[in-house]
Amino acid sequence: MDSNMSSYSTLLTLEPLGISPIYILPVFMFGTLTYCAILFFNITLLITIALNQKLHKPMYILLFNLPVNDIIGASALFPQIMASMLSQSRSITYSACYVQAFLIHLYRAGSLLILTAMAYDRYTAICCPLKYHTLMSTNNLLKIIITVWTIDFTVIGLLLALSYRQEICSTRIVDPFCNNPSLMKLICGDIRLNNYYGLSLTALLHILTLFVMLFTYIQILITCISKRQSDAKSKAIHTCGTHLVVYLCLEFISLFAIISHRFANVSEYLRGAFATSLMVFPPFLNPLIYGLKTKEIRQNVTVLFCTKISQS
To answer: What pTM did the predictor assign?
Structure first.
C-alpha cells in the first residue's frame, strides 16, 4: 500500500446506515425535512436577534452564537448522509472526511463552550446585578465570544492536525460519519500522542465546563432562594433547570460516544445512534428551548412573521 495512500484522493468507506432499500425514500424525506426545520428554526432565531435592537443585550448576543454553532453541526452531518442515501454509496474522500470530522468536533466543543459562556452571563446577571453592566460590557462581551471561538478552532484544529495525512492501513470508517476516533483507527503508526492529546482535551474541556456550569447555577440557586421570594425561586428553577438539563444531556451523549470507541463490545449501531443524535436533537431543540420559551424572543418572532405576512 502506498504511503499515505494518496491521501487527498483516497476513498474511505463509512459504516453502512443499515436502512432497508424500501425505507430509503421515506428516511431521506424525513431527514431532509428535519434538516430544513433545523435551518428554519435556527435562521429565524438569528434574524430575530439581529434585526431587533431590544435584543442586542449580552444574554441574546451570546445566544446568537448557539444557532450559528448548531447550523455548523447539522450541516456537517445531514447533506453528506442525504447524498449517500441517494447515491447508495457510503464512500467519502480522505480530505472530505477530515473536513466533516473538523466541523463535527468544532460543533461539539463549541456547544459546551457557548453554554458555559451563557451560564456565566446568567450568573453575573442574578448574583452580581450591580456589576453586571461592567462585567458584561461590550468590550468584555466581545472578548468572551472571541475567546470561545478561538479556543474552539485552536483545540479542534490541533486535534485533527495530529492525524492528518499520516500513513493509513485501512479505509473503513467505523461510524456513520467521520470523527477523530474513527480516523485514528485508520493510522498504521504510533498514535499515542493523538490519544494523549485527545483524552486530555476531552477531560479538560468537560471537567472545566462542568465545574463552571455547576458553580454558576448553584450560586444562582442560592442567591434566588436567599431572597425568599417565590418569583425569585421560580426564576431560579426556570433559569437553571432548562439550561442544566440541555447541558447534561449533551454531556452524557458526548461522553458515551467518546468512551464507546474504547470498548470493542459496544454495538456499532448503538454508538452510531448516540453520536448521530448529538447532531440532530440539540440543533432542532435549542432554538425552541432558548428561543420560543424566552418571552422577548417569542414576541419578536411573532412580530417578524406578522410583518412579513402583512407585507405579502
So the answer is: 0.88
